[in-house]
Amino acid sequence: MWEQVDRVLRQATSQIVDHVANFLPGVLVSLVLVLLTFAVAMLLRTAVVRMLRGIEFDRRAGQLGFAVLADWSSTASPSVTIGRIVYWTIVVLGLLVSLTALNATIPSQLALSVFEYLPHLLAALMILVVGAIAARFLARAVLIGAVNMRIQSSRLLSLFVKWLVLIVTVAMALDHLRIGRSILLLAFGILFGGIVFAAALAVGLGAKDAVGRVIEQRLREPERPDDTVNHV
Amino acid sequence: MTNDALWYKDAIIYELPVKSFCDGNADGIGDFKGLHEKLDYLQALGVNCLWLLPFFPSPLKDDGYDIAAYTSVHPAYGTLDDFKAFLDAAHARGMRVVIELVLNHTSDQHPWFQRARSAPPGSPERDYYVWSDTDRRFEGVRIIFVDAERSNWTWDPVAQAYYWHRFFHHQPDLNYDNPAVVREMLAVLDFWLDMGVDGLRLDAVPYLVEREHTSCENLPETHALIKAIRRHVDAATPGRMLLAEANQLPADVRAYFGDGDECHMAYHFPVMPRIFMGLHAEDRQPIVDAMEQTPPIPENCQWALFLRNHDELTLEMVTDDERDYMYLAYSLDPQARLNLGIRRRLAPLVGNNRRRIELLNALLFSFPGTPIVYYGDEIGMGDNLYLGDRNGVRTPMQWTGDRNAGFSRADAARLYSPLITDPVYGYPAVNVEAEESDTASLLHWMRNMIRLRRQFKVFGRGTIEFLSPANRKVLAYVRRYRDDIILCVANLSRTVQPAELDLGAFDGMVPVEMLGYTEFPAIGSLPYFLTLGPYGFYWFELQRPGR
Amino acid sequence: MASTGSNSSVRAAEAEAAQVENAAPAEVVVGLTSHNDAATIGAVVHAVQAALETAGRADTARLVLADAGSSDGTREVVRGLVAPPRLIELEYARGATFREMPYHGAPGRATALRGILEAAHQLGARACAVVDANRQAADPACIDLLMTPVLRDGFDYVSPYYARHANEGAMTKGIVYPVFRALYGARLRQPAASEFGCSGRLLSHYLAEPFWEAEHAAAGIDLWLAVAAACGDFLTCEAALGAREVSPRGAPADLSTTLAQVAGALFADLDTRVDGWQRVRGSVEVPMVGTVPALETDGPSLNLDGLVESFRLGSRELRDIWTWVLPPRTIVELRKMSDAPPDRFVFDDRLWATIIYDFAFGYCHPVMPRDHLLRSLTPLYSGWLASFAREMRGAGLAQADERVEQLCLAFEAEKRYLISRWRWPERLR
Q: Which residues make Cβ contacts (< 8 Å) with residue C330, sequence separation at least 6?
């Protein structure tokens, strides 16, 4: 009996040792990876912050209206915030990579899907920020431009541009996130198609005469006299 | 930046300890990275010269004035590269940078001292410092830090001798009779000037050289040494400025200008306590006396004026009666006294009265000289009397109402000094962010005043004549430079005051109030009558009637 | 924005330096600026030569041609008429790309003028005249007027004065001249014209000025030269150069772009010269040489209703933008105006002056992109122009000048408003 016990114990021990032997290199590799990740992340963060400081990003960001960035973390400057984003992105990615090294199936699948998704998330965020700034800037530019071109419904036009940019931005962001792609496409198709169709109908049926008059005037009438005056 | 060699005459200097300004690496201590980030704030404030307190490697027993290595940066504040980056960024914004050069002494940790104490007596290494076998040499020389030191000599067990020190016992005085020391210091000077530093504040200059049977202050040998330094600077890097810190009577300080061949600038110590005295006594006489006793200085020289700085409001240079008056008036709390002075910031000194703060700054900006603004005083920061020595006025700059006042992202416990948290001056109430969003704040007022002052060279370069209206509560003076004539009138009292000014010399001219550009009635042959509100002050441009 | 490619400008500078160095010293330099002006430049060169001949300076004069990369043979026309060494061609614009077309249609103008002035400086010229090649009537007497006051009477800067109809050059009359005069104290009525004469002393002063590389220098340089002359210790005079008839260069006709460039150039100088203009009080008359001709034809007419309508539209839609720079009092005043019937539409001089000053202040303490700010001034300008043109209907030169004088007095009176706002700014919003 003792022999049996001894054998079973030996077997169990060797099994555990086998398991550990199988597992240990993975752990080691993943540990190394984790360490490397932190090192790389820190290096990159320093590099990014240095670079941004070098191009005086904080001041420029303030001028460009990247106040959003500063609002996220009130104590840090925009360049530090960006540095932090870079740092954590790399840390998360590195941790996921190190999980795959453990040879566990579930984490590695998770890691893969997150890997695929992450760039889209970042891109979507970027798009939203840039879009919001562009919408405000463009709306004002269009308003001023339209007023100077004496277009009566300037404000409408400016609002239209603002919302158009915002909607397109949101749609692009959602598209990048692969959320409701087909619905989005459909909705946009219907919306734009509808608008264009309605406009065509309106011009063709309702405002036929008005449009005709405008075109006629354009063709016949000489330029408005005040356009020929030299202002300077 | 202009290439004007006299730039220091038009400067507005901002004094700051790197340690206290902004922490860029979240270790609880301010550093060059943080300072670099805040340059835009300083540019918006309008100051065009920064004076940095010592930032060299040091055991920090005297807030950095005990230097352990002259040509490098204390690791807590960053690296030499950080300093260079900061310097370039400051220059790019049109700001000049003045740093400290502590000539008189080093830290006892400095390699020179470590070498000297173990070198044999009489060797050149030993002679870097002043040694003696007894503590009876140079008897009768006064002790400056009376609260901390009993003698100017301290026994060194390693060297088996006494070493000489005018300040703390851990700050042995260098021996300028040793040519090697002079050579070493000139090399230090060159190191920083070649890097692009625009000026050097020479700390404790009166005490450089010691001679038996003298006070060991302001000796001719000391002046000769400074002249040599000036010649060296002018030859190698012209356009740089030397600022002498000589806490002496104006007549003695005058000597540090030489014939325009020693220091470019020197502090005007006596005027500062007398401004405070005049304000408290509601009498202009102390101020007028101080200014009129000021000796004339060479054309290329300039006084540096300040209301408050990193040291105590020093009362060494006033009479005993005046000192008693000042103690009674401004520091009934004995906790506020240190050595021969009062260790408080501007706002608490004047009871946080906005009008008094404005009046004092208006005087500072309109007196002949270059004004120095101490960090935090532009937002009316308070102090902490319960921190030892002068640390109560060196607390972290208050940027926001957030954690650690926006000064640092470190743990609050890690900060080099606790923040001001009392309900009146605490950072939730007094901070840059809040004052920036409020156009009526002291910060905005300071910005406007600084910008206005910078527009008129007359304030930095012009002459001054005091008027003598019968009402002694009213201080009035005329500044002139080339075609510009500026009349300044200030009410030192807390109530409305009338003033009849004798402006006969300006008959027919029109005073235009400078802040709002408002024309006042033209000056006639009768005395010019003005009414001033509590602590009110006016700056008038005297304009010739319509061209 | 004169942005020549850096390589090309370096190469050009070398070539030009060689050309200038080899030349003998000259007493007078006439600079010609051109850009696709083949049709007019021949007559202009003839006139310049005639003027020099008459004055007996043909031998001691040099013609410096600064051509902004013409593609219609402008250079060839000049070469056919004058030969080196009398002619010096500047190579500043070869292969250059210009990012922004200024309102006057001559890209890279700052570089051109700098080249001319540098050449004149190196040749040791006592006087330098700059003539624009697109003037249609080239009268030798006019060109002489740009040089003689410098050479004979000791003036440093000769500013042209063209006889123009009341409605012409309204931006100069309503904004540039009044602000220039109130701020810098010299009554130069057309400080931003594209022709001028200057002395050797002023020349060296110009070359030391920092504005050559500044932003928008192409559009602003002419004005900045006049400002520099007025701010320094220089004698200035006006020369009556007859009627100004130029062939358009296909410059952007868009009113708001022109306004943004002209006003931007004017305001950009405020910040840098703050020490100067805040001390200037009142203004001094500037002597005039030559005689102003009577205008023969009628001036162009304006669509007043359209202008008023544009103002109304602006005050309805751009109010939110204006509140960033204009104080509430002005906004209320503007609303009252836009409610008034068209025949009673009057733009008060003082109101106009404070509006311009507010925009100048807003430009120097930016609260929004500067281009937006300047363009949003367009409806206000339209409104002012409508009011001005209605008042000036059928008026002659003298009447118009008198009216502008009145306007200038309003600007001078309101200058204290600008100074007080500058010195003690309240937050814009």
A: C351, C354, C355, C358
Q: How far is CA B519 from CA B433, B482, B544, C53, C417, in A?
A: 35, 22, 12, 55, 12
Q: Are residues C239 and C170 part of one domain?
A: yes
- Closest-CA residue in chain B for A52? B37
The one-letter code for the residue type at B260 is G
Using a CB–CB cutoff of 8 Å, tell me whether A208 touches chain B.
no
Assigned domain for C192 exists: yes
B403 in contact with A, Cβ within 8 Å: yes
What does the mean pLDDT of chain C come to? 86
How many domains does one find in chain C? 2
Q: Distance (Å, rounded) from C-alpha C346 to C-alpha C403?
A: 14
The catalytic residues of B are 203, 245
d(CA B489, CA C94): 62
What is the per-residue pLDDT across B64-79, written as a single tens digit (0 to 9) for each?
899 999 999 999 999 9
Q: Is the dihedral of CA B187, B192, B197, B199 positive or negative?
A: negative
Using a CB-CB distance cutoff of 8 angstroms, which residues of chain C are in contact with residue A147? 310, 313-314, 317-318, 376, 378-379
Every domain of chain A and the residues it spans: 1-103, 120-174, 180-223
3-state secondary structure of C144: helix
Q: Is the dihedral of CA C158, C162, C167, C168 positive or negative?
A: negative
pTM for the structure as a whole: 0.82
Q: Which domain holds residue C142?
A: 6-289
Last residue of a domain, one of C257, C289, C321: C289
Using CB atoms, which residue from A137, A144, A230 is nearest to C168?
A230
Structural domains in chain B plus CATH codes: 7-103+179-455 (3.20.20.80), 111-164 (3.90.400.10), 463-543 (2.60.40.1180)
Beta bridge partners of C161: C240
B306 contact partners, CB below 8 Å, separation of at least 6:
B15, B267, B272, B364, B371, B372, B373, B374
ipTM, two decimals? 0.82
Which of B517, B520, B544 would you mutate first to test chain C, the one with the most C CBs within 10 A?
B517
Question: What would the 3-class secondary structure string for B90-125 be?
Answer: HHHCCCEEEEEEECCECCCCCHHHHHHHHCCCCCCC
Strand, coil or helix: B318 = coil
Residues C168 and C220 in one domain: yes
Q: Kindly state whether residue C429 falls inside one of the protein's structural domains.
A: no
Residues C378 and C333 in one domain: yes
Q: Average of pLDDT values for B215-229? A: 93
Which structure tokens are listed for B329?
A: 């008036």
> Within this chain, do residues C309 and C263 fall inside the same structural domain, yes or no?
no
- Of the candidates C289, C316, C340, which is a domain's last residue? C289
**Residues of chain A under the 70 pLDDT cut:** 56, 58-77, 103-108, 207, 215-228
Q: Could you tell me which residues are beta bridge partners of residue B98?
A: B51, B199
| Shortest CA gap A57–chain B (Å) | 11
Encoded tokens for C256? 């708001």
Q: What is the CATH classification number for the domain harbouring C62?
A: 3.90.550.10
Q: Does B400 touch chain A (CB under 8 A)?
A: yes
Residues C317 and C260 in one domain: no
Q: Which two tokens stand for residue A194?
A: 């509808």
* φ, ψ at B261 (rounded to 5°): -125, 20
Cα–Cα dist C52/C30, whole Å:
10
Instruction: Say if residue C60 is in the same domain as residue C87.
Output: yes
pLDDT at residue C10, rounded to an integer: 45
Contacts of C334 (CB under 8 A, 6+ apart): C315, C322, C326, C380
Give yes or no: residues C208 and C339 share one domain.
no
Examine residue C18 and state whether it is found in any structural domain, yes or no.
Answer: yes
